[in-house]
Every structure is written in structure tokens, then in C-alpha cells.
Known about the structure:
Strand content of chain A: 5-15%
CATH topology of chain A: TIM Barrel
Low-confidence stretches of chain A: none
CATH architecture of chain A: Alpha-Beta Barrel
Oligomer: homodimer
Structural class of chain A: alpha/beta
Amino acid sequence: MTRFLDACYRRPTDATPVWFMRQAGRYQPEYRALRARYDLLTLLRTPELAVQVTRLPKALGVDALILFADILLPLEPLGLGLHFVPGEGPVLEHPLRTVDTILGLRPFPVEEALGFVLETVRGVRAVESDLPLIGFAGAPFTLASYAIEGGGSRHYTHTKRLLYTHPHAWDHLMQVLTDITAAYLRAQVRAGAQAVQVFDSWVGALSPRTYRRAVLPHLQRLFARLADLGVPRIYFSTGTAGLLPDLQALDAEVIGVDWRVDLGRAWDLVGGAERVAIQGNLDPLALFAPPEVLAAEVRAVLDQAAGRPGHIFNLGHGILPATDPDQVRRVVDWVHAATAS
Amino acid sequence: MTRFLDACYRRPTDATPVWFMRQAGRYQPEYRALRARYDLLTLLRTPELAVQVTRLPKALGVDALILFADILLPLEPLGLGLHFVPGEGPVLEHPLRTVDTILGLRPFPVEEALGFVLETVRGVRAVESDLPLIGFAGAPFTLASYAIEGGGSRHYTHTKRLLYTHPHAWDHLMQVLTDITAAYLRAQVRAGAQAVQVFDSWVGALSPRTYRRAVLPHLQRLFARLADLGVPRIYFSTGTAGLLPDLQALDAEVIGVDWRVDLGRAWDLVGGAERVAIQGNLDPLALFAPPEVLAAEVRAVLDQAAGRPGHIFNLGHGILPATDPDQVRRVVDWVHAATAS
């Protein structure tokens, strides 16, 4: 139970803990069987089913569970109209495109609007005594970019245009999303989540200068509002090798990094093992390699951590749907065997 | 004439030179008028028209011209069937998906197959005496990923699978593409190109470990084969802030970086102004900001170069089609005014 949480606090562990972003869902046959009967939003909104999906990866031998949910769920009660289009991903029916609409946004009571997520958290904790449960939310920038673009984006044209042209509206939007996210994560912890991860999946689109000005202050406020919860706070982003030195200004227990930077170098850039734990960073595509190549890739990540306490093994981004669960199981076993003390 | 070339060799200049990736085309009304009459492949393959497009950005006050061409042109004589689908970008009709097909690939004589590009180079040099002409080609990895995926890609699944599973086929493909690219750039310089840029636009998808093993040795061979040409060699990539320390092993006169890393830090990571010149790195989206915000962004890039010789001002990636040419002109004027000695 304590291996993952100990590593978050950089305490020695009996082996390096391992879990996988997106481990609940997609690539697992048991999940696909459920999806054949229910659409994605139904699965997400039905606590009984979401509890079941959250616990599926136990069979893989992971050291933590992560809530089965979606970072975009809070955009629905904001009135943006969330849909999942098969093959295309999430689409927001009413993207934020005017300053007036943005300035009119207000936080909503998360306990009511997202009660089904909290119910899932309570449901997992009621039946699960072996593994800690990680709650999560989207980071304000990543939520804002989805809300403004209306879905995934290549250039973030609308987002950056707003940020450059209407800094007042941008800051209001970021403040509202920060307030919602803080309340949402606090509620998840009250419901039983034992750690929280903030996903800033798309913030790598920004220059360090823009990040420092338009994003980091909001993240600092968000993390400060989670500081008294007594659970580890993980900040995860991708494509941000150029931003890592700026993350020294963020008060988080764990920094998650993608595979586009050597894990050891990333750790040094965010302040080293004396300051923060690190999570990552196998390329999710390495799971498509032959086992002997995969083993070498896993070994290379572990070598970068070089036996320092505070390494949580993970991918650099979510597991892809076509991944073979046997490969995932191999990684878990190898990480544990290679680091057992 | 010499401002850009001097900066490439880190010699003092009368002002910081500036040019823009993708400056020839797309966002210019004169280009769009031509495109209304000719499709893209016709424009690319008709030297008389390509010469005209190459020279259009002169009106903006830039310090160098870059050949109007496309990095994927060499994939056509390789038999992959190149098309440009409006709104979707390039599509290859016959992507490389089997080891046998890849092992059967051989370099082709570039002077015959891509003679129209060389004709364009000669055509520009015959009429242009004010500005140096930059030739270019796609880097082996970026060409390989297009060839294997059949177009743009999000996860590079087929590419990474090949690289992990069939390293022998991967190396053969990279060698063939390196041979073709070296011959192609040598032919461009013989035809009159006064600098060459190698575009590794998608290599940021790789981990540093994979880059060092599967890509860098081929790049080193490519750059070695261009060393005797007596023109500056520029290596450009995006999303590669985590790979910059590895680029110290590449013998290039100039490293181009995107906006996802502070330019001054990037320069230090690739060896500093004592070793190499740097090109970049304004976010192309900054051109959509109000002029006063754009001015501050330009200033921030220049401040990072801090008066060191060897800075070539550019974007961090290509100009987007919706860009206002007046904004581009402003940037040119500001860079020159702010750095005039």
C-alpha cells in the first residue's frame, strides 16, 4: 500500500513503484467488453461501472490505481457541451470564443455537478484496501485550451490569440478554472483520493516566457490551495523539456515528465532528488517493441533514476489503445525485479 | 548580401539578420493569386513560377531567401506517390510498410529526378543579386516518418515500431535517405545555393536515447558529407528542447530551435556562441498578437541573444497561412532597428 506514497515523499521503498497513465481503460479486453455495452460518457457517469474500470489494472500488478474519469468532465457543467466523437476524441459543442462569454464564467459547486466522480472515489475506497487511489484533474491551461479550441488542436491559434490579445479575459478564465480545479481536487481527497495528479498535457505548446507569465502563477495558486490536504501533488506535462527549470517555482511533491528528455537530466532541471520526486518516462510506443527491446528501454529509464529514492516509474504519456496488456505486465514485473531491495 | 552569411559564421554584423521559415508562400496575397491559377505541385515543379515565389518575401525586407520547394519532393522519385490534399496536407499513396519494400530502396540520381528544383536555384541566382539563397531538404528521420506513416502523424506508431522491431531495415532506410539528401543538397549548392538547412521537423517525437541511437549517427554522416561545400549548414528541429545537449555532437554552423525553449538557454545547451550560431525562435502565433505585444515578444528573443554575434532571427517553425504580412514586415523592421550597430 505504501510503496507509491513513500516514493512520492522521496522515502526509501522496497522497490520502485509503477503505474501507467490511462491504465484504466482502452487497451484492456475487460474494458473493451464494457465499452461494447456502454458509451464512454455512460461509463464515466455511472459510479458502479467507473469503480470497476478503475480497479481493472490491479491484475497487472501496478502499485497505484488512478480514478477512471476524464479531464474534460468539468467543462460540461460550465455549459460547453461535452461529447466524445469516436475516432476523433472529445468535442465541445460551445467553445469559448468571445471575451463576454469568458468574463461571464463563474465556478460551479463541484459536489453537485461532479458528484458522480466523488461517488466513484468513495466506491473504490470502500472495496480497495491494497492499492492507493490517485485522483486527478486537468490543469487550467490544458482545460482552457480545450474550452477555447473546442477540441484537440495543432497550433492553439484561438487560445494564443486570446492570451495575447485579451490578457484580462485570459486571466479571468484561468482563475475560474483554477478555482474549479482546486475545489474538485479537494473534494476528491475528501472523498478518499490519496494523491492528486494535475494533467497539463498541452502546455508544451507555449514558450517559457508565456508559460511564466500566463500559466505558472495560476498553477502556483492551485498547488498552494492543495497544500494542506496532506496528500502528494503530482504535476504532469508533455513537450515541456524547455520549461523544466521554471518548475522549480512550483510547490509540488512530484513532477511527471514525458520521454522527450532524459529522466536524470529532467530531475536535475526541476531541482534534483533533494527537492522533488520524479515520475516517468518510458515512451508509450516502447510497449510496441519486441520484449528484449522493451526491457532495454525500461532498464534505461531505471538507470537514469540511479537508485535515488523518489522515482515513480510511469510512461511519458497515456497508454495507447492498441497496447498489448502482456507487455504492460512485463514492464511492471521488470521494474519491481530490477529495483527490489 | 553578407549579413545572413556572416551571422551563420558568427562574424559581427551591422544588424541581426532575419528571415522566416515558410516565408515563400501561403500567407502572401501574391502567392495566393498564383495558387488560384496553379495547383501546389505545378507551382513547385515549374522553375519559372518557383523562382517568382522564392523572391516574393524580398518585399518584406528579409535578409535571405529560401528556395520555394517542399521537403517531401524526394519521396516522389522513390516511388511513394506524393499528393497534397487541400486542408489535410501531404499524403503518400504508397507508404513504406514492409521490410522487403524498405530493403529494396536505392538512391536515385537527383539531378534527373529533381532537376526542376536545381533549375529553380539557378533561376533565382541568375536574377537575384541582393540576397543569399538558402537551399534545403528534409532530414532523414522526418522524411522516413512521412514515408512510413504516409502523411502527418500523431504518435508515429509505424515509424517507431519499425525502428524498434527491424533496426536493420530502419538503418537501411536512413542510409538511403541520407545518401539522397546529401546528393540533393550538394546539387543545390552546385546550382548556386549559398547555405543549406536540414529540416528535422518531427524528430521531437523521439526520446534522447532513441535519437542518439537511431538518428544522430545518420545526421553526423549527412553533415560530414556537406562539410567541403563551403556554405553554412543549418540543422533545424522542433520539440527538441530535451535533445539539445546531444546536438553538440553534430558538426553544423547553425542550430535552429523552436519557441519551446528560451533561446539563450538553448544556445548554451548546444555549446554556446563559441561553438555554433543559433537561429530562432519567435512563436509563429506571436504574429497574431497586437503589435505592442508582438514587439515585446520580439524584444524578448533579441534579449536572449544579448548582442552575441551569431544570432539569426527567425520563427520557431513555419509562418502560418493566416498570418498578416504587415505583422511580418513589422518584425523585420524592429529586429533591424533594435540591433543596428
